[in-house]
Amino acid sequence: MPASESYPDDLHYHREHDWARIEDGEALLGITWYAQDALGELVHFEAPEAGAAVTKDGIYGEVESVKAVSDLVAPISGEVIEVNQAVVAAPETVNEDPYGDGWLVRIRVADPAEADGLMDVEAYKALLAEQ
Amino acid sequence: MQTLRRTPIHERHVALGARLVPFAGWEMPVQYEGVIQEHRAVRSDAGVFDVSHMGELEVEGPKAHEFLQTMLSNDLDRLEPGQAQYTLLTNERGGIVDDLIAYRLEAGRYLLIVNASNRDADFRWLKEREVPGSDVRDVSDGYALLAVQGPRSLERLGLAEAPAFTFAMEELDGHEVMVNRTGYTGEKGVELMVPAEEGPLLWDAVLARGVKPAGLGARDTLRLEVCYPLHGNDISPETDAISAGLGWVSALEKDFTGVEELRRIKEQGPARRLVAFVMEDPGVPRQGMAIDGGGDVTSGTHSPMLERGIGMGYVPSDRVDAGTELTIDLRGRPRKARVVKKPIYRHEED
Q1: Mean pLDDT taken over chain B
Q2: What is the pLDDT of residue B349?
Q3: Is there a contact between B34 and A44 if contact means CB atoms under 8 Å apart?
Q4: Predicted local confidence at residue B348, as pLDDT
Q5: Listed residue (B206, B224, B216, B241) closest to B279, CA to CA
Q6: What does the longest C-alpha to C-alpha distance in chain B come to?
């Protein structure tokens, strides 16, 4: 079942509809409810390799639905330490739980101060309201 | 900025919360609940597509048969009134102006159901070439067309079985409907044609019988699984019937536009052919991606039934056998696919 629309307040948001949950020098990255809804049911996650470097605002992978493909944009720089294999095997997990089981990669954060440039939930909701 | 046309069913799509997108100048539902769900509903039960955007041309007169015989690739002599056939409107180079279904209404009267994107071009093409005694009219705006497809479609509609590519006027929940035994999904099914103003009520009647609404997204994945070509993707005025594997609807013994060129291509063998393939590696092939060794993807998607990438594309004629390995450039990543016999998916008979 697709998730209903929500935007948790413990995340950092990127304007390209990606999120980061930053904790203890690590971050989980994923896409927002808005992004998965716009794409429709995901059928493929083109994941980076563990060990790959990701750069803030840079592309670290792709997700695809039947009709469309979308780049994944890193909200924050770091090194990939884990790829969510559950999403590789069942990409629709992102539609069902975009902030929980549908996380995409875990990274070791290079510079926590980069998070200051990201949006909080109120700013992100304001951005959505303009779209 | 061009205003998008809306079908007679438009308000029903809005009420159902469909996602509407521009398609061939029309505002059309691409999905209601989800492409994959709608695809599976059609494969397992029954779905209804609003295809009222498609064009309907009538060709009438004592010379209508003779005229269309010279314009269309398939042999109309094989049709009795009440029968229909898949055929091609061809150009002088043997290219495909459009693919369509010709319905023989009466001895001197035909209905052509054509692609929405080619409606105007087809009409002009025929109008410019029509001969005294054959009158071509675009009657598209007068009709709504609903495709009801799936293994349980006839049962849901309360219609009896009938041979494919036949049609008849039948009564359905108080509507006089032209019931065409045709479709674009590879499933059992019908296409229902009624006057435009009756469209919304017929749509309601079909949904009330438990048929699920399905959008253009599922229509594309369904047709690609069974390798039905899409004009503008897999076939075009620049591609010919022989290379596209449509020799079976090209009556090369009769005279029609471009037949000499098609005979020549058949005799010499086409340089490239349209093949179907299934991805062995992860990823979804898309139209325009290059196939290693010369060739390109003309249609690609994710198959909900196979749960992997599938597609069609033109490849050199020495690489068309089933089992041939292809390498497709998926946005800079070389990914393996394998040529398969068409169709990619076949419904198992129960």
Answers
A1: 97
A2: 58
A3: no
A4: 72
A5: B224
A6: 58
pLDDT of residue B1: 53
Mean pLDDT of chain A: 97
Question: HSE (CB half, 13 Å, CA atoms) of B316?
Answer: 8
Strand-pair partners of A71: A62
Please give the structure tokens belonging to residue B312: 């069609």
User: What per-residue confidence (pLDDT) applies to B2?
Assistant: 64
Count of other CB atoms within 10 angstroms of residue A86: 14
What is the distance in angstroms between the Cα of B283 and the nearest Cα belonging to chain A? Answer: 6
- Confidence at residue A131, expressed as pLDDT on a 0 to 100 scale: 83
Residue B301: per-residue pLDDT: 98
Please state the ipTM of this predicted complex. 0.90
Largest CA distance in chain A: 37
Question: In chain B, where do the E strands start and end?
Answer: 19-23, 26-31, 47-50, 55-60, 84-90, 96-106, 109-114, 135-138, 143-149, 167-172, 175-180, 189-195, 212-213, 272-279, 296-303, 308-316, 325-330, 333-340
CB contact under 8 A, A43 and B34: no
Nearest to A44 among B37, B302, B304 (CB): B302
- B43-73 as b/e, with b when 16 or more CB fall inside 10 Å? bebbbbbbbbbbbbbbbbbebbbebbbebbb
